[in-house]
């Protein structure tokens, strides 16, 4: 029996594309058995720029500026960087695209998306919300530390530059035996006790900083994407300005080139250690925010026909280059400190 001919699109009328789009619409608009229906009245981003800044602002954070340079330093520099790129392309970008596509097509948050796929999988959505909650708990503590240092940075001289004086000729002995930075961090900022059994005293300043951090989060979320989008214009762009300033200053330091050579020099033999692979793939998930449900939530405010392929590649590329930019800053300063330390030892 002769098969019917395939539809032709030689005249450029877009017949095949129209048929595929109509089939996609029918699939998306029809709820699965026992699943949730698509919400057509869901709010939307005012512009594509808002959406991109939201995704970049969520994925780019302490994992790029703080954690990635540390892992790169601990795991062979260039070897870890190359391994991270491979895992990002093979694992990270495809999973990131899947979350973008799921949120954009079903137009619901993490709980609604998994319930739409299957009611039996709704627990995954609730689990992702719990993960976000627990991450927010310790992230806001770090923000509180940052606010504490921001407030103290307006003093001159800086309180972590020199040991506090008990009298004109006496300083705190504990500070002189360690360093002013360590003393300020452990005794002024954290006010830690000698053991975990001791509760210590109430720290009103740090508590106020923590409340201020949570207040900023609430203000950014009080009106949903309308209020958070306005915050993104500053919170997503300003860190790059600061990093560029630090990079320019770091590259002008003596010994910065040695730090950059250490960063890009590949110690490929470290690939034989399973721990390096585990830390690299963990960093991929942590940096892109995979599994948190926030990527799904952000993309659910997109138009149905938004090009999420391009978004996945663009956000992943920005995320990676931010990690490299932060690492350049850190390793340039590490090279300067290492050379300064060597000169100090030679002088002694």
TrEMBL record:
GO terms for cellular component: plasma membrane. The chain crosses the membrane at residues 81-102, 123-150, 205-225, 237-256, 276-301, 313-336. Its main location: membrane. NCBIfam families: Na_transp. Na(+) binds at residues 57, 60, 64, 319. Signal peptide: none annotated. Keywords: Membrane, Metal-binding, Sodium, Symport, Transmembrane, Transmembrane helix, Transport. One of its GO terms (biological process) is sodium ion transmembrane transport. This is Transporter. One of its GO terms (molecular function) is metal ion binding. Coiled coil: none annotated. PANTHER family: SODIUM/CHLORIDE DEPENDENT TRANSPORTER, TRANSPORTER. It is a multi-pass membrane protein. Belongs to the sodium:neurotransmitter symporter (SNF) (TC 2.A.22) family. It is found in: Membrane. It comes from Synaphobranchus kaupii.
């Amino acid at each position: 029996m002769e098969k019917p001919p395939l539809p032709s699109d030689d005249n450029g009328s877009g017949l095949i594309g129209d048929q595929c789009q109509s089939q996609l619409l029918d699939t998306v608009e029809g709820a699965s058995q026992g699943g949730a229906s698509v919400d057509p009245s869901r709010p939307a981003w005012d512009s594509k720029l808002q959406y991109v800044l939201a995704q970049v602002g969520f994925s780019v954070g302490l994992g790029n500026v703080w954690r990635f340079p540390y892992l790169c330093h601990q795991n062979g520099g260039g070897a870890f960087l190359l391994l991270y790129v491979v895992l990002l392309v093979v694992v990270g970008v495809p999973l990131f695209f899947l979350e973008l596509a799921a949120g954009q097509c079903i137009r619901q948050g993490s709980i609604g998306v998994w319930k739409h796929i299957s009611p039996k999988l709704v627990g995954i959505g609730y689990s992702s919300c719990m993960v976000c909650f627990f991450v927010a708990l310790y992230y806001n503590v770090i923000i509180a530390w940052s606010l504490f240092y921001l407030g103290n940075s307006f003093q001159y001289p800086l309180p972590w530059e020199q040991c506090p004086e008990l009298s004109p000729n006496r300083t705190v002995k504990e500070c002189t035996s360690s360093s002013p930075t360590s003393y300020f961090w452990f005794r002024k900022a954290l006010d830690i006790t000698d053991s975990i059994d001791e509760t210590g005293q109430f720290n009103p300043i740090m508590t106020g900083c923590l409340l201020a951090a949570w207040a900023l989060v609430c203000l950014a979320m009080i009106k949903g994407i309308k209020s958070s989008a306005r915050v993104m214009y500053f919170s997503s762009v300003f860190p790059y300005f600061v990093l560029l300033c630090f990079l320019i200053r770091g590259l002008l330091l003596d010994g910065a080139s040695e730090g950059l050579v250490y960063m890009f020099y590949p110690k490929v033999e470290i690939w034989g250690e399973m721990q390096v692979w585990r830390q690299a793939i963990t960093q991929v998930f942590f940096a892109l925010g995979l599994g948190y449900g926030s990527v799904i939530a952000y993309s659910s405010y997109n138009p149905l026909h938004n090009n999420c392929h391009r978004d996945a590649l663009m956000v992943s590329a920005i995320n990676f280059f931010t990690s490299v930019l932060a690492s350049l800053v850190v390793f340039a300063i590490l090279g300067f400190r290492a050379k300064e330390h060597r000169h100090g030892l030679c002088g002694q």
